[in-house]
């Protein structure tokens, strides 16, 4: 039997943010910014793959994901769940189990030998596919997988990122142009709110992070990164 509960969206976001802090998946370092794949300088970094190593947290997050998707998209809207190489693959398996759906996964490129497959698993023509990734910034890699599924005859109208950066207008424009509704559980705003509430850093550090979330490219440019957004891998 499939059992899905429907906590308040704000509660799920706050709890996920607390979980990420608890397992050490979040890092604030404005004095020595991280360099992202896009070339941006960032005072924040997150590793959502760590969720997989904590069974109680992992299970709760997948409950949240099932709640978010069924609430936002409906109950009979998908024929399978797809994970992108590599971080999305285990989460796709977990969410497919929660939703009692088949699972497939998508390579970044065709594997170059054998059947030269890019999509592994059974995806019938016209299958309605839910794509999942651990996180997304502006949707670069997610659309790499979505485009591959569509090219193979699948239909993608919905995607879920467990964690969404949530402060790039380019992301909203990309998903709107690609005709995909993006679902997510938590963003950097909830992560910052928990850090403030629990006084995890100095006021100066929290202020720098908030400044970045308000104007990420301006902050990046001031700290040695790019001033314009390219196409990040996530």
TrEMBL record:
UniProt keyword list: Glycosyltransferase, Magnesium, Pyrimidine biosynthesis, Transferase
Record pathway: Pyrimidine metabolism; UMP biosynthesis via de novo pathway; UMP from orotate: step 1/2
Keyword Magnesium: yes
Lineage top rank: taxon: Bacteria
Any single Pfam family the record assigns to this protein: Pribosyltran
Example of a GO MF term: orotate phosphoribosyltransferase activity
Record-given protein name: Orotate phosphoribosyltransferase
Source lineage: Bacteria, Pseudomonadati, Pseudomonadota, Alphaproteobacteria, Hyphomicrobiales
């Amino acid at each position: 039997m499939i059992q899905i509960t429907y906590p308040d969206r704000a509660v799920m976001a706050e709890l996920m943010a607390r979980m990420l802090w608890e397992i050490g998946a979040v890092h604030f370092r404005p004095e020595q910014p991280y360099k992202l794949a896009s070339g941006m300088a960032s005072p924040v970094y997150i590793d959502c793959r760590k969720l997989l190593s904590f069974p109680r947290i992992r299970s709760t997050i997948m409950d949240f994901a099932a709640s978010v998707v069924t609430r936002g998209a409906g109950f009979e809207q998908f024929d399978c769940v797809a994970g992108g190489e590599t971080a999305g693959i285990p989460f796709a398996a977990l969410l497919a189990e929660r939703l009692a759906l088949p699972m497939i996964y998508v390579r970044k490129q065709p594997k170059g030998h054998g059947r030269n497959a890019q999509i592994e698993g059974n995806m019938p023509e016209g299958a309605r596919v839910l794509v999942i990734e651990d996180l997304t910034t502006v949707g670069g890699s997610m659309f790499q997988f979505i485009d591959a599924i569509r090219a193979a005859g699948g239909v993608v109208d919905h995607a879920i990122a467990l964690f969404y950066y949530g402060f790039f207008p380019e992301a909203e424009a990309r998903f709107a142009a690609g005709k995909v509704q993006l679902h997510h559980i938590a963003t950097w705003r909830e992560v910052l709110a928990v850090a403030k509430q629990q006084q995890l850093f100095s006021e100066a550090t929290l202020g720098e992070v908030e400044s970045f979330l308000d104007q990420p490219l301006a902050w990046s440019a001031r700290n040695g990164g790019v001033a314009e957004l390219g196409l990040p891998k996530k």
